[in-house]
Amino acid sequence: MKARLVNTIEKFTEHTGRLVSWLTVIMVVAVIVVVITRYFLQMGSIALQESVTYLHCTVFMLGLAYTLKHDGHVRVDIFYRGYSAKTKALVNFVGGVLFLLPLCGLLFFVSWDYVVASWAIRETSAENNGLPFIYLLKTLMLMMPVLLFLQGLAETIKNGLMLYSGESVFQDDADSEGPIL
């Protein structure tokens, strides 16, 4: 049951991360268009520039869970890298229970009123020709902790099972589907 829950969460995180990763390609194209239109054609677009910011925010905020799944977050591992697999599982389990999962809950709770207020007024850009949906961008502030919580829960369960059974019962990252793009 627990392994099935973890695998379901990890598949969801994997698909979400791969989908979000394609936004980087769109973002690069948008930056190229901004540069060409601004510096070579002498015309700019505030909406296009804001769209780059929106894409950037989306990639980072919705990509956090994917990065956690692939152990890509920065860590100070002076001691950690020398630990045994079981000690690493203990550190990750305690870190998940004491820090990651509560932090996700706190971020969601603190962001809720801010996002709801933005939706209530259908907040738009302060710029005249900016994008008319800042409230959608702010919604990422609720989506990010939810996705990160789900993947954090999967990681915490995996580490708990590693501590309990002494061996991993999950697919190794080396066996995953390969590179994103």
If you had to describe this structure to a student in words, what would you say it looks like?
The chain has 181 residues and is mainly alpha-helical. It has one domain. 72% of the residues lie in helices and 0% in strands. It has helices spanning 2-40, 46-69, 85-120, 134-165. α1 packs antiparallel against α4 and α3 (85-120) packs antiparallel against α4 (134-165). The longest helix is centred in the first third of the chain and has 39 residues, at 2-40. The protein is elongated, with a radius of gyration of 20 Å. The two termini are 32 Å apart. The relative contact order is 0.17.
Quick recap of the structure?
With 181 residues, the protein is mainly α. The protein has helices at residues 2-40, 46-69, 85-120, 134-165. The protein contains 4 helices and no strands.
